[in-house]
Design goal:
Blueprint lengths: L15 H53 L9 H4 L2 E3 L6 E7 L15 E10 L5 E9 L11 E6 L2 E12 L2 E5 L12 E7 L10 E7 L52
Antiparallel strand pairs: 1-2, 2-3, 3-4, 4-5, 6-7, 6-8, 8-9
């Protein structure tokens, strides 16, 4: 009589083919998850960039227009109140005095000194790209060296910054590319600003443009000086000289004056 042998059950394991197939399926799932995550990330980044561009455009437009809407000028003190516009280069340069409101960017740094000279210029950044800068300082900064000018970057990667002025030249009112009379204010100012905040060629540039009508005129000298001989106010007519573009000190003149604004 033979003894019965115990029956051993064979244990089955994964084959190398099954392991490779599982790894391929897992890799496909992970690739799909990563692609979805990357798409969400790109969409979020594009949305944030677009929102930043709109915000920067709004800030640049508001700062420029609000400063021009607060411009002031006294011809008697033209050396400090001169309206300086230089459009000879590739980018425009604009400098004037304004009585800025408390809500204007940077007003908290100057306390009660609301009358400040505001300058808009395009300068190269550290990476070589051009950027629009707004610099402001109290009009009495020359006698108060404790206060430093405040500079704010309004737009990065600027490709265009231009200004034009509604003026009368030889009896014809039209848009002029330059403004030579530093002791007068133009009736209308047209500006154009094009910039690319990201600096990427495929990104659509932001465009800010418009027309501003400064709600002020230059106060003539005779209204600010004591009465001269004979009881007439002032000792003479206001001159036409003043500091030239970018503080060169050159006298300016010409036949350009303020004309009637065009119908819009």
């Amino acid at each position: 009589m033979h003894a019965t042998r115990p029956i051993l059950k064979r244990r089955r394991a994964f084959t190398i083919l099954e392991l490779m197939l599982a790894i391929v399926i897992f890799a496909g799932v992970m690739a799909a998850i990563y692609a979805c995550w990357a798409a969400v990330l790109r969409g979020t980044r594009a949305g944030m960039t677009a929102a930043a561009d709109v915000q920067r455009e709004r800030v640049a437009r508001r700062a420029f227009e609000e400063a021009l809407n607060s411009v002031v000028m006294y011809v008697e003190n033209r050396r400090h109140y001169a309206f300086i516009a230089d459009t000879a280069g590739q980018y425009a340069y604009l400098s004037f005095v304004a009585r800025l409101p408390a809500t204007f960017p940077g007003s908290g740094m100057f306390g009660d000194l609301s009358v400040r000279r505001v300058t808009f210029s395009v300068e190269p950044a550290t990476n070589g790209a051009m950027q629009l800068l707004m610099t402001q300082a109290p009009i009495l900064l020359a006698t108060n060296q404790d206060q430093e000018p405040y500079t704010l970057v309004l737009a990065k990667n600027v490709t265009q910054f231009s200004v034009r002025f509604w003026a009368t030249n030889a009896g014809v009112a039209q848009w002029a590319d330059e403004w030579l009379l530093t002791n007068q204010l133009p009736a209308l100012i047209e500006y154009g600003l094009v910039f690319n905040a990201t600096g990427e060629p495929q990104h659509t540039p932001s465009v800010a443009n418009g027309i501003v009508a400064p709600p002020a005129v230059a106060v003539p000298e005779q209204y600010r000086t004591p009465a001269g001989p004979g009881g007439s106010p002032g000792g003479g007519s206001p001159g036409g000289t003043g500091p030239g573009p970018r503080g060169t000190g050159a006298a300016t003149g010409g036949t350009i004056g303020i004309g009637s604004p065009p119908k819009r």
